[in-house]
């Protein structure tokens, strides 16, 4: 007698949410980013045990705990290093690295450059609110130079970091910008980023209503990118350099071959575990 | 605000409605959890009630259409003018010290947007069946508007200075 097993039902966004309630300020854009990530994972359709979410430190870096995927809440600025190692060791996993602008562009700035350059097949989501929220509102690398506040009176006077240009120049294979106020659009972009081979970078504008309440206006400023995505880095660079910072969509989708391990593993997982046995 | 794309069939209309109601359930639940984490239990309970009302709408649409519970409604491009469905309360309207009065104002605005949405679909309906269904759903949303108004009548507006916090998160407050 043969037994036919029914295929498991396709996962839904709810399947990718953990039982932990997010601890963010009410009104924070990161809530909807979490919703977008779970929707994107449902679109991708892989079960949660085949997905790993890796983060560093900061408000947005809490995100792994709020998903049902494997998670690693790592050291400040080192999320990409951990995510890269994981993907190279376990290439069959879908690896999503997430964090904020301080974690990714300042403390982890050098990892960002080299992750783009290596082009390992993973997806990096940066929830950018132009401020260090967790430590009470200091200027971050993407803060406008004239943002006047008690901690940097008159503004820092320092030019803001341009992550999309840096990503493109450093070799990222997919560059996009999304907005937390458009959760379904963001889910589509994140899903496309995960599917795209190589290092995919998505900057997600995610307002911090506590320390940058004026960012509530972002929903009036964002607009779909007026031109379709391109695979020409020079054209993409011109567009990104001259855009207003609020173009939403996929700005570059390249065809560079992702990094692949050149030699087979030299040890089994059991052997490595034995090395660490106490 | 541009008008939503007119559905071509009854199935399309109901799929739009199902998506909107499901997103409203998800958002009200999210807002309730947000308030629970911040120990604002009175407002959390109110959002839970709104989520429950919206979930009744979901059940009703599924029953009326004979759709299974896990029916995935295809997203209709341009189904609504903004990025979020009309009945979803925008996340950035939240405040950790908000009162039930504020929560009800947000719910009222969301329900009124839902009324306008179905009114607009009824006006642009391409068949009598679509128009009747859109009008029926508009009438249900009008009932929700009235329900929220009845609640609001029992809830006093907050005193001035309701957002004052003796230990504020910002240094410059």
CATH class of chain B: Mainly Alpha
Low-pLDDT runs of chain B:
none
Number of domains of chain A: 1
By CATH, the architecture of chain B is named Up-down Bundle
Task: Quickly count the domains of chain B.
Answer: 1
Distance between the termini of chain B: 35 Å
> Helix tally of chain B?
4
Low-confidence stretches of chain A: none
The name of the CATH architecture of chain A is 3-Layer(aba) Sandwich
Determine the strand fraction of chain A and express it as a percent band: 15-25%
Mean pLDDT of chain B: 90
Number-wise, the strands of chain B total 0
Helix/strand order of chain B: HHHH
The radius of gyration of chain A is 19 Å
Residue share in β-strands of chain B: under 5%
CATH superfamily label of chain B: Ferritin, core subunit, four-helix bundle
Structural class of chain A: alpha/beta
Helix content of chain A: 25-40%
Shape of chain B: elongated
Could you describe the 3D structure shown?
The complex is a heterodimer of chains A (278) and B (173). With 278 residues, chain A is of the alpha/beta class. Chain A has one domain: 3-Layer(aba) Sandwich (Rossmann fold). Chain A contains nine helices and ten strands. Chain A has helices at residues 30-44, 79-89, 101-107, 109-118, 163-170, 183-195, 218-221, 233-242, 269-276, and strands spanning 51-55, 70-73, 94-100, 123-128, 131-132, 138-139, 174-179, 200-205, 223-224, 247-253. Chain A has an eight-stranded mixed beta sheet, with helices on both faces. A two-stranded antiparallel sheet of chain A has the order 5-6. Chain A starts with 29 loop residues before the first helix and ends with a helix. In chain A, 47% of the residues are buried. Chain B is mainly alpha-helical. Chain B has one domain: Ferritin, CATH 1.20.1260.10. Chain B has four helices and no strands. Chain B is elongated. Chain B starts with 9 loop residues before the first helix and ends in a 19-residue tail after the last helix. The chains are: A alpha/beta (278), B mainly alpha (173). At the A-B interface, helix 1 and helix 6 of A face helix 1 of B.
